[in-house]
Fold this protein.
Amino acid sequence: MARRPEVVTQPDVVKGDGRGAKWRGSLDADIIIANAPDPVFVSDLEGKILQANDAVSQLLGFRQDEVLEQSLSRFISPRKRGNSPRRCARCRAGVMRNVVLNPRSASGEVIPASLNASALRDPNGKAIGAIGILRDMRELDKPAPTPRA
């Protein structure tokens, strides 16, 4: 089951990471991930899913407990060899954009999807995992609504 986000009670606290970047204490990553409209997941360097929002479960048709702690490769198979969030976390730039994937739903349906992913780094810049956002490409195949006269 997904962790419940904690609300930080000090909204005016601003923290720095020593490299000039700053963030507000009230902007908790768990809250952002949980409320994102698109399927968002976080994995470790080995590709194990550590966190996934409800949109991931809705897209794939798996319960939260069936997604967490599983390997990304169980759900996501990139069209091109080597394009995976796990590889993204280890690559130098640490960013992947619009990689076309074919995740399988719980019913076995292949879902055309694109992935944008980025390496997650510790304060020293070392890659510790990846965060990915999936987009269901089936929505793009739907015809646009006809305007009413």
